[in-house]
Amino acid sequence: MTPAHIETFFATLAEANPHPQTELAYTSVFELLAAVLLSAQATDVSVNKATRALFAQAPTPQAMLALGVDAVTEHIRTIGLFRTKAKNLVETCRLLIERHGGEVPRSREALEALPGVGRKTANVVLNVAFGEPTMAVDTHIFRVSNRTGLAPGKDVLAVEHGLLQRVPARYRVHAHHWLILHGRYVCQARQPQCGACSVRLQCDQGRRLQSARG
C-alpha cells in the first residue's frame, strides 16, 4: 500500500464509522482492564456474558479482591484459561490497591507490571481509556495488516511498529478499532468478504484480484 492508498483506506473506514468503539462491555477503566485481561483467546461476546454478573457483584478492585479467586473462577468458567485468568485478575486487583490507590495506572510500564497484562492489553487500556494513539495488535489486526500490505510483519511487534509509522497521525487514535472491526466482519481469516469490501482497491490483495479479473 502506498501512502495515498493508506490515506484513502482510513478515510473510507472513518467515514463509515467515525467513532468506533470496543465491543467489550464496561463502565469504568477498571472494568475495561479486567475485561481486556479476560479476553485473551476468547471472544468479546463470551467475555461480556461472563462479566455481566461479575461486574455487578465486583465493580471495583476492592470488591473483586474481596470476592476472591474461587468466586471469580466460577463467574468466568465459560471463558478459556479461566483458572489462570481468575488468579491474575485477583492479584492485579491486589496490586492496584497496594501500588496505585485502587486506580488503573496510565503508564505502559505500570500496566505491564500487573499479572496477565501484556503489551496488547496495555495498549488497549492506554488507547480506549486514556486516548493514547497505540496499536493493540490482535489476530485480526495482524491478518489485515499483512493481507492488505498496510504494515506487513512477521510478528505482532513488527506489525505494531509498522502501523505507528504508516498510519497518518489523525487516524491513529481510532485505527486499531477500525482494523479490528474490519478483520472481524469483512477481512475474515477463512472467507474474506472482498466483494463487499469498501477498501478493496486500496488493499494489495484486492488490487491483485481486480487485475486478475481484467
Walk me through what this model shows:
- With 214 residues, the protein is mainly alpha-helical.
- It folds into two domains: 96 residues, Helix-hairpin-Helix base-excision DNA repair enzymes (C-terminal) (Endonuclease Iii, domain 2, Orthogonal Bundle), CATH 1.10.1670.10; 100 residues, Endonuclease III, domain 1 (Orthogonal Bundle).
- Helix content is 61%, strand content 0%.
- It is built from eleven helices and no strands.
- The longest helix has 19 residues.
- The relative contact order is 0.13.
What's the alpha carbon Rg, rounded to whole Å?
19 Å
Count of runs of 4 or more consecutive helical residues: 11
Q: Work out the count of structural domains.
A: 2
Give the percentage of residues in beta strands. under 5%
| Strand and helix order | HHHHHHHHHHH
The appropriate CATH architecture of the largest domain is: Orthogonal Bundle
CATH superfamily of the largest domain: Hypothetical protein, domain 2
What's the CATH C level of the largest domain? Mainly Alpha
| Biggest beta sheet summary | none
Structural class: mainly alpha
Unreliable parts: none
The coarse overall form would be elongated
User: What is the mean predicted local confidence, pLDDT?
Assistant: 95
